[in-house]
Design goal:
- By secondary structure, this protein is α+β, with helices and mostly antiparallel strands.
- The chain has one domain (about 5-315).
- The chain is built from 15 helices and 10 strands.
- The strands form 4 sheets. Strands 1-2-7-4 form a 4-stranded antiparallel sheet, sandwiched between helices. A two-stranded parallel sheet has the order 3-10. A two-stranded antiparallel ribbon has the order 5-6.
- The longest helix is centred in the middle third of the chain and has 19 residues, at about 105-125.
- The protein is globular and about 55 Å long.
- The N and C termini lie far apart (about 50 Å).
- Bound molecules: cobalamin and iron/sulfur cluster (SF4) (2 copies).
- Cobalamin binds near residues 24, 135, 153, 169 and 211.
- Cobalamin binds near residues 97 and 250.
């Protein structure tokens, strides 16, 4: 076991990889995607931060090495399946990442974890400094994970790890020193002739040739990102299958997720899954409508639903 593996043991990281390469292999694929307007309405992907994504040194000038982590949430996906088979299930669905990570927003839980890992590493390597990246930073994280040998880009554009599948979140530490020999190889494509994700996507959001999606068509965009704007429900969402927060459909059907889901140990459903999915829809809606804005924030504090706000969440609940 390497020294790094040893140091990471207490943090329950599902997998990690290492790269010294600051430049994404797929930057031109990303820039082309934006040029074709596939990012719309997510304007933050096309402003001055576009260029920042072309090289990790634009974001962190002292960059020498990245340690990239995968955090699996297969357990939560497996727990949800039990709910979807329950006779009291109300037909709504929630993306499983929203229910993982101790019922809290993964940004808080994983950020804390990454900071603790960095602190541990700093104690071991003198002069070590670094920054974390987690979703909101101007870094192409799937590419970073790809460069670290952690997986390939599936046709649904998810980073897929051979053992863990795609129900994983990505986070990283960018360091000013090399502390471990980089992971030696890039993962090859294991999608083959499969088209399951393309066939299931209800809104035809997946672009097979580019292994990307059209953000505007993706259910995830409307139900997670557009909470204040977009009061009018886009017509294509009527083709959804009950998703009220995010969408797991193109991962649910992926054969690479079968084994990780079967192997996971069930811990019981999350608090939010019970709250939203195992009660009559009108009861949930009435309860939310009765919340003051402040009361809503207090009730959902620290969860992914807090960011949506009362109106954003109600907008989603009224799609179907
Ligand atoms: C914007 C965004 C979204 C947008 C757009 C998604 C998209 N596919 O672009 C929306 C809101 C729709 C979204 C949805 C989801 N997201 Co999101 N999202 C992001 C974010 C912030 C930026 C992604 C981005 O830059 N997109 C632009 C496209 C062009 O880039 P890309 O998706 O990385 O695609 C690359 C490949 O396709 C590659 N490529 C294509 N062809 C080829 C060919 C070759 C040869 C090579 C080398 C490369 C290559 O090039 C592209 C550019 O790098 C990242 C976090 C981050 N900072 O990276 C999270 C992130 C991608 N999201 C994540 C998650 C979990 C989701 C959802 C599953 C949530 C849910 N359940 O609802 C869905 C999945 C939808 C889907 N099928 O992609 C995870 C993905 C983890 C993983 N295993 O891949 C990330 C990494 C967040 C994280 N820190 O974990 N998301
Ligand atoms: S997350 Fe849902 S809507 Fe978005 S590409 Fe996948 S299946 Fe389609
Ligand atoms: S469902 Fe099939 S085509 Fe889509 S990402 Fe998974 S293996 Fe690739």
């Amino acid at each position: 076991m390497s020294k790094l593996e040893d140091l990471l043991k207490p943090f329950q990281v599902s997998a990690f990889g290492v790269t010294n390469e600051p430049v994404p292999i797929s930057f031109s694929a990303y820039a082309g995607w934006v040029k074709r307007d596939y990012h719309k309405p997510l304007s933050y992907l096309a402003d001055h931060r576009l260029e920042l994504r072309s090289d990790l040194r634009q974001f962190y000038p002292d960059f020498k090495q990245a340690i990239v982590f995968l955090f699996s949430y297969s357990e939560e996906r497996a727990g949800l399946e039990k709910i979807y088979q329950d006779q009291n299930w109300n037909g709504w669905k929630i993306a499983s990442y929203a229910l993982g990570f101790e019922d809290q927003d993964y940004h808080f839980v994983l950020k804390k974890k990454l900071i603790s890992i960095l602190d541990t590493l700093k104690k071991e390597y003198s002069g070590l400094e670094g920054v974390l990246t987690l979703d909101v930073h101007p870094v192409l994280e799937r590419d970073l994970a790809y460069r670290s040998g952690l997986g390939w880009f599936g046709k649904n554009s998810m980073l897929i790890h051979q053992g863990l599948g795609s129900f994983v979140m990505i986070g990283s530490l960018l360091l000013n020193q090399e502390i471990q020999t980089p992971t030696p190889r890039l993962e090859t494509d294991h999608c083959g002739n499969c088209r399951a994700c393309l066939d299931i996507c209800p809104t035809d959001a997946i672009n097979e040739a580019q292994r990307t999606i059209t953000a505007e068509k993706c259910i995830s965009t409307f139900t997670i990102e557009l909470f204040k704007e977009a009061p009018v429900i886009p017509g294509h969402l009527e083709r959804g299958t009950g998703e009220i927060f995010g969408c797991d459909l193109c991962q649910d059907v992926c054969p690479w997720n079968k084994k990780p889901l079967q192997q996971t140990s069930l811990q019981g459903a999350s608090k939010w899954a019970n709250y939203f999915l195992l009660r009559p829809r009108n009861e949930v809606i009435a309860e939310l409508e009765n919340f003051s804005q402040k009361g809503f924030r207090r009730f959902f504090a620290g969860s992914v639903f807090e960011r949506l706000g009362k109106n954003g969440l109600l907008k989603n609940l009224k799609i179907y």
